[in-house]
Structures are given as structure tokens and as C-alpha cells.
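Usage

Read records sequentially. Each one opens with the input sequence:
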Amino acid sequence: MEHIYREGEANAPTFILLHGTGGDEKDLLPLATVLNDKYNVLSVRGEISENGMNRFFKRHGEGQYDVEDLNYRTERLITFLKEAAQRYNFDLSQAVPVGFSNGSNIAISMILHEDTIFNTALLYAPLYPIEITNDKDLSQMNVLLSMGENDPIVTVEDSKNVIDIFKNRGANVTELWVNSHELTQAGVQAGQKVLNQ
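and closes with the structure output:
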């Protein structure tokens, strides 16, 4: 997978940066620096091209996920992260997914996968409108959910569904409501607080 790796301080956790639709592996690098410049950074580019825009998985339309492809891409991403952890010598159990929009959505799919353990995640403008059959215990997890009250893509109801996904599985959820489908200064500050929990 196309990616950028930046080494941080010795034994520091690693940000897994996952961009939004139409973005690439450079998009969230400034965010990682502001969140904590001591962390390692692994920033990944989505493998799907939708009308020339990079994405992490296919969809049939806005908010209509191709679930089969989502599952396949989630498996591929997890395999890549395991390989990258060996290649770059970082501890995957200390990795922190940081996603925006489509990147947040594949992050949720990874978090819910039985093969992963993440203790912290920062998810900006997430949407996860599919039925989930597993009830994975996330009680060890701190998660930031930054959502828009006037988001043109994700309804408040959809955002509350994402909150429920995490709360129903025991996660410690920090909710932040911003205006739209966006990454804000308040979101950055909330992310820093969650990292320090």
C-alpha cells in the first residue's frame, strides 16, 4: 500500500493516519504533528479510486457501503499494518488510528475486527450505517468522536449511531459536536486530551 512512515521518539506510540475521500497519505501529516510530534506516523493511501478520488473501500452511493469490499479492504489494511509494524519496528498494540470521514469509517471496521486491539482512536466525521453482528468488548478503549451538527453528509441520527456502536461495547467515548463535515481546532484539542487519558 502507498504510505509514508515517519519515525518518532523511541518507544513512542504510532499514529495510523487514514484520509478522507479524495485525500491522500499527505493530508493528515500536519494533524499528526500538532496532536503529538513525538509519535511515529504511518499514513496510508486508500487503494480504491472513485472517479479519480482515493478511498479505502467501495460504495454504491453516498452512505451506501459495499459491505463485501469493506470487509475485504479491512482485512488487507490490517495485514498491511502488521507487516508495517515489523518492517518499521513499532508496537501495533500501541497504535492510534486517526481518521477523517472515509478514513474514520475504515478505522471503525478495523476496530470492530476480532483480530485487532486498539486502546485509543481519534475519529473525525465518522459514518457507519451498516448492521454489526459482533459485540466485541471495547472497554479498554478511549475514543474521540468529532461529529457535525449540520453535517451535509452525516445526519445527527447517523452520528448518534456511531456513538452507540462504541458505548454499547463499553468504550470510553469523548463526544465533540462541531458545525459540519470538518476537522476543527476544537477537534485537535479534544484529540490531544484523549491521547493524554
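Summary fields computed downstream for this record:
- The chain has five helices and eleven strands.
- The chain has one domain: 3-195.
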